[in-house]
Amino acid sequence: METINFDKLLLKTAFSCMACDGDIDKREVKLIKKLHKEKKTFGEIDFNAEMENLLIEINKDGHQFLKDFFNELTSSKLTEANELKLVEVVIDTIKADDKVEYSEIKFFKVIRSKLKIANQPILDKHPDFEDYLEQDIINESYLSRLQEDFFDTHISNEFELISEIDSDTFDSIKESNEE
Prior knowledge:
Layout: H1 3-19, H2 26-39, H3 47-60, H4 62-75, H5 80-95, H6 102-113, H7 119-125, H8 130-133, H9 140-153, H10 162-165, H11 167-178
Helix pairs in contact: 1-3, 1-4, 1-5, 3-4, 5-6, 6-9
């Protein structure tokens, strides 16, 4: 997969994890900005423009946005290293607000079902996620029900623009980088 496309998919993954519980927590936004600024996790993309575009898209139709994300994930040809990076971003985003919601676990399981990576590389980095990697009885019917159940119980909210919810956090990161 082309690097810039993977970087965008990675950001879309983090964004989708933030939004999957119907709430974008400032700590999640701060984490994603930190990953981009300090670790260049999302490469050289225009971070702010991409985030604004994702917010506009999800506000149009949240369920369709997430369904399209799942389809994009399914159709992407990812290396094991890319899949591990994607899982790490998912886990970090889920943990960012210090609470793991049931909808986030279901969301993680749906994402996990779209990847080919074995559990061991994930457990090597995140042993505390073992419970979330335990295999359910998986077949096509189960995966379809899991995905549909996520949408049946998920409330799609309209989110504020990142620039509006996070100006204080963004300013504090900017100031700390200037020091």
